[in-house]
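Practice problem 4.
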């Protein structure tokens, strides 16, 4: 099964990105045969910025994204969203690439399930 998770909200402030990553990680843990793809769009592209420092006891999206990548998940960040936020030249977390609407369209077409946050 292929699952696409689309995150639209900023990295911190609400818990949408956090809950999306919890779902991605649990899918990988509980269902070894699932293919998880995560697409960061709009303000969610800020999730892909490395060296996040969160207070002790607070979730850290960089660690969560890295966990999904380690288990063969794929994560892409919307390139035009990065540009709109002045992040065109930003270094992203290792394993996350700038991507396109064409990629999101293909992942959506190929997915058995699409979940948005």
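Answer key:
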């Amino acid at each position: 099964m292929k699952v696409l998770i689309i995150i639209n909200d900023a990295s911190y402030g609400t818990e949408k990105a956090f809950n999306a990553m919890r779902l991605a990680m649990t899918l990988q843990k509980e269902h070894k045969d699932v293919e998880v793809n995560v697409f960061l769009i709009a303000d969610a592209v800020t999730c892909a910025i490395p060296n996040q420092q969160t207070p002790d006891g607070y979730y850290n999206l960089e660690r969560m994204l890295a966990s999904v990548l380690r288990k063969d998940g794929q994560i892409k960040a919307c390139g035009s969203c990065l540009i709109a936020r002045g992040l065109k030249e930003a270094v992203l977390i290792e394993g996350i690439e700038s991507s396109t609407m064409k990629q999101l369209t293909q992942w959506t077409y190929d997915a058995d399930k699409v979940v948005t946050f």
